[in-house]
Design goal:
By secondary structure, the protein is mainly β. The chain is built from no helices and 11 strands. Strand 7 and strand 8 form a beta hairpin.
């Protein structure tokens, strides 16, 4: 099993910034990609950003130019720097990791961290 623990959410005013972190732990695993998703009240979970082991990044159109995903491979940690936050960014943000553990594919989710953008 691979466990993910997110941190860094909170309340911020419009135009402000937050940085989310997601740390993976376990044994005998390899992570091929880590990503962030979010789910606003009454809406489906949606993709936000992706970072692959090869260094490829991908963003949802709604966050391009404002959010930056990065990864510390040595710490098995992925970060999401969020700038110029808008009220519509309010959601629970979830971390996802996909790869191989003990030669079996896995996809794990964190517990989520709340981000609220409001004045």
């Amino acid at each position: 099993q691979v466990q993910l623990v997110e941190s860094g959410g909170g309340l911020v005013q419009p135009g402000g910034s937050l940085r989310l972190s997601c740390a993976a732990s376990g044994s005998n695993f390899r992570i091929d990609a880590m990503a962030w998703y979010r789910q606003a009240p009454g809406k489906q979970r949606e993709f936000v950003a992706l970072f692959t082991s090869g260094g490829t990044t991908k963003y949802a159109d709604s966050v391009k130019g404002r959010f930056t995903i990065s990864r510390d491979n040595a710490k098995n940690t992925v970060y999401l720097a969020m700038n110029s936050l808008k009220p519509e960014d309010t959601a629970v943000y979830y971390c996802n990791a996909a790869g191989v553990v003990v030669r079996e594919p896995f996809s794990s989710w964190g517990q989520g961290t709340q981000v609220t953008v409001s004045s």
